[in-house]
Structure formats: structure tokens, C-alpha cells
Amino acid sequence: KAGVTQTPRYLIKTRGQQVTLSCSPISGHRSVSWYQQTPGQGLQFLFEYFSETQRNKGNFPGRFSGRQFSNSRSEMNVSTLELGDSALYLCASSLMTVQETQYFGPGTRLLVL
Amino acid sequence: KQEVTQIPAALSVPEGENLVLNCSFTDSAIYNLQWFRQDPGKGLTSLLLIQSSQREQTSGRLNASLDKSSGRSTLYIAASQPGDSATYLCAVPLKETSGSRLTFGEGTQLTVNP
To answer: Does A94 touch chain B (CB under 8 A)?
Structure first.
């Protein structure tokens, strides 16, 4: 069974631009979560989608948004990029609930110049 | 608010040594606890998931224990190898939400020297 895939793997953007990251969960998984990882803040939860609905949201500004499609694939969008948005963005998928193992993708490394 | 702490922050051991990584959490009302491994610049690899009703889980040279009442979990690595060098993270879900939001510790950076 294929694992969680994320595209693109690397991105370089400039301040003020916007970016869209994509995540394809493991086949059959309906929950997709997004995390931001930085050296200073560690892993921070962005949001979670389940059956095309946002089920949980972390404490990030409205510039960060996401969506999930009917095939469970998910995208996250960051508008008006800031230098501090440079990070590794990870997505995780699980079958349905918090009681199951979460599987992470390889991440998208975003550098904002 | 759930807080997760991992001690030590970094650990360097010679190859072959048995070692223990520690994880503590402030709210004992957890569904489960998951241990992950992360290699530099890479994603997280799930190692073990312990449900709240379990005391231990084993996978190969890895053994994780859970003591909910004291808010602690340990990851035991037997006969460590240089390939075990990575950052190890523990995470628990937030019980007050219905979804899959995890709270992570800061991780223990393990180096196994040949």
C-alpha cells in the first residue's frame, strides 16, 4: 500500500506570494491533518480535515487555509507569505479517528525569501 | 491544556548499548500515545502506538511502555545501532476534540556511535 505523498517536496517563494501544498493520504484514509515544523517551535498543528470538512483548527492566522476533496486528497494554502512561514510542512493521514495510528508524509520544505 | 515533555533532549551512546527515552504528559486522560522517529529533513515514521488500555507494545528491538496514572511513557531500544540515530518524538491526541490533533514533545535527538 502506498504511503502518504506530498507535493511538491521543495519550494522557494518570496514574501507576499502565495503557495499551495498537496497531500494524498493512504488509500482508504479519510482524515488528513497538517503540521508545521520549525526549529524554534517544533511541530505545531494547523488543521485537520475529515470527509471534506474541517474538524479541528490550530492557532494559525487566517492566511493559512486548507480543503479536502471527495477522494480525501487535501491541499493547504498560505497567502501573503512571510519569512517566518519558512518551515517543513507535514501532513498525516489516518483511517477515521484519533484512536488509530497516524502516518506522516515526507513533508514539503518551504523557504520564503 | 496537554503538555508533552521529552527527556533528555539529546543522547549519545556507543553502539550496542540499551537505552531508554522518556516522555511525560500533563493530562492523563489520553486515548493513546504514539512514538515516532524522524530523520533529518524527513517526515515522521510511526514506530509504536499504545492504546490507553495497554501497558506495553513491542516491535523488534523497540519496546514502549505506558503508565497513564503517572503521565509517563518510555521507549526502550535494545542493542542500539548507528542506524537508530534520529530524533524520537512522542505524541498524544487532544482528548477534548473528536479529531486526530496530536500534541508533540520536543523530541530526543539520539546519536549511536560506531
So the answer is: yes
Which residues, in sequence order, are CB contacts of B71 under 8 Å at separation 6+?
B24, B25, B26, B27, B28
Q: What is the DSSP string of chain B?
A: ---EEEE-SEEEEETT--EEEEEEES----SEEEEEEE-TTS-EEEEEEEETT-SEEEETTEEEEEETTTTEEEEEE-S--GGG-EEEEEEEE-TTSSS--EEE---EEEEEE-
B41 touches chain A (CB under 8 A): yes
pLDDT in tens, A19-50: 999 999 999 999 999 999 998 889 999 999 99
Written as nine digits, the cell of B26 is: 500533563
Q: Which of A55, A99, A104 lies at the smallest CB-CB distance from B43?
A: A104
Peptide bond into A39 cis (omega under 30): no
> What's the rounded Cα separation, in Å, for the pair B64 and B91?
13
CB contact at 8 A, A4 and A25: yes
